[in-house]
Amino acid sequence: MGATATTGSPAAVARLIEALQQLAPAMPISSLRQHTRAHALREARTCYDHLAGRLGVELMSAMIGNGHLTGGDGTFDLARARQDRPTGYGHDVDYTLTASGEELLAGLGLRLPARRRPVRYCVDWSEQRHHLAGGPRPGPARPVHAGRLDTAHRHHRAVSVTDAGRRGLRDVLGIDLTPP
Fold first, then answer.
1. What is the number of other CB atoms lying within 10 angstroms of the CB of residue 67?
2. Structural contact between residues 102 and 112, judged by C-beta atoms closer than 8 angstroms
3. pLDDT for 41-78, tens place per residue?
């Protein structure tokens, strides 16, 4: 007997994958290469067209702390979540870019699209906090690339920060990327 394929909405498929991730055991790390790669992905990585990991969460937190974003505090609380899940695009918090946030983005050479909601976020799977998603085009990763962030590896999503990028993030947003 052949199985029939059913198609679901992208949101339904995403929820299914997220549910499976919660049930799946963590993959054991059995080599230095796997450890190094996993650590790099947790520190800074791409998530679609934006930054995630510790760096993405720090960027969001700095924008909130410096008054560039309002509406939330960057935290994810599963017990209070209505639509948000432990990973993926967020829906529960309406962040707003302030006038100083618009100035910051303009200073980085970014402009907001006319017909899009300006500020979106994702719940970061490794940090369980919010990171910026969507909004300023070509995406929140752009100002960091302007600050000379470089892709560390061509075969996965890890991102490393150059010395100039570290200085820029520290000087512009007060983000200190020294290892924890």
1. 12
2. yes
3. 888 888 877 888 998 899 899 999 999 999 999 999 98
Which pTM value belongs to this model?
Answer: 0.72
Task: Taking residues 90-110, report their average pLDDT.
Answer: 85
For the chain, what is the HEC assignment?
A: CCCCCCCCCHHHHHHHHHHHHHHCCCCCCCCHHHHHHHHHHHHCEEECCEEEHHHHHHHHHHHHHCCCEECCCCECCCCCCCCCCCCEECCCCCCEECHHHHHHHHHCCCECCCCCCCCEEEECCCCCEEEEECCCECCCHHHHHHCCEEECCCCCCEEEECHHHHHHHHHHHCCCCCCC
pLDDT exceeds cutoff 80 at 112: no
**pLDDT tens digits for range 149-162:** 554 455 577 888 88
Number of Cβ atoms within 10 Å of the Cβ of 168: 20
Residue for token pair 């498929």: 13
**Can you give the length of the chain in residues?**
180
Q: At what angle do helices 163-173 and 53-65 cross, to 10 degrees?
A: 20
Q: Where are the domains of the chain?
A: 57-180
